[in-house]
């Protein structure tokens, strides 16, 4: 186990009176944002009953001693987060969806050294965009996030409309044996196909949550798919419900009834905000994943006669439902006419690529690579014919594309495989400009689900740094479906 000193020396980021990005690229020339709030964050283990009250507990991984630790902040804050690694393997923290400087993006090897057990790393996290975000490790994600390591980052905006109630719902399945221990997080049959599913389905760590809100009140639900694998079709058994944000970013509200099949299809890492108008006292609203043949109802909202102090009496009378619009996203807008066009095919890795990179998992080198570079030992997937160097002797692959800071890009993501892939780009908020199926409304996001045979086009203004671009089905990512854009 490396000492703290060796970790710091290896990190090369300690400087009197401040901190310096771990990687000294062109991005280092950008001035650091000024921190407004210091926070400590640590990871560790805890025993938690996932199988039921009378069943054995599971040893899960958490931030700050609580499942789905939630940080609430205001738009405009810059968090200065000292992270301490209390789990038993190297890790990092990635601030999913945050437009951050590259040095704080949390990618081992590419943007920072791995934080060893007992080690620390400081992250400067600027909160320019309001919305529902999350954070998670970027090493052995199937293992670390699969066992629970993920936190919620809520960025409030003074311009947000006033709701009578707000609830946060973190959906995640767990791969558990009857004695509460974890089953293997990844099986080849899953990793090479749709993924290895957990059978214990939960919301906020429970099988189902029972929530309350005032009758005829306006409720904001922030729903996060924090599962490693599962694509969900989120729907509500109630007409007065609208989709108001995707991945934290407002879109013109859409009644759920007006979406295809009345649901929003959401892959791992995707988030939605819903506005629900409650029925009369005693009435209920049920939320479910309608995708599976066996419907999973994860939350029931019951209308109570209680009022909230903020609400006016009129707010508790029946009235027509007009969904609230959240403040519009303020992100750099790509120039679609002048944008450089690129296209990437998502596909199974070719046999040649698999052969080139495969190391037997029991090879000590494979183990060392998994530990230090956070890569898997098998390659099944590729983006644009390239696979992240899983189990290979190479260090990093070349970038998928070289881009210029401040330029606009239109990237077509073409799914040539038989499985859906939620594709995530770090460090940017992109615009989803079209999908070949016509399924997706125009919206801003950091992750987009691309269905089999579908082509989705995204656009963004490139920010400086090396930004990974990967599938957020964690096994796909660890089995090669990851690359990066180099923006200079
Ligand atoms: Cu939440 Cu690289 O991802
Ligand atoms: Cu995938």
From TrEMBL:
Report residue spans for region: Disordered: 309-328
Q: Report whether Metal-binding shows up as a keyword of the record.
A: yes
From the record, what ranges are coiled-coil? Answer: none
Enumerate the spans annotated as Plastocyanin-like domain: 59-159, 395-487
A Pfam family reported for this protein in Swiss-Prot or TrEMBL: Cu-oxidase_3
Task: Print the keywords alphabetically.
Answer: Metal-binding, Oxidoreductase
What is the superkingdom listed in this entry's lineage? Bacteria
- Can you name this protein? Multicopper oxidase family protein
What organism does the record attribute this protein to? Ancylobacter crimeensis
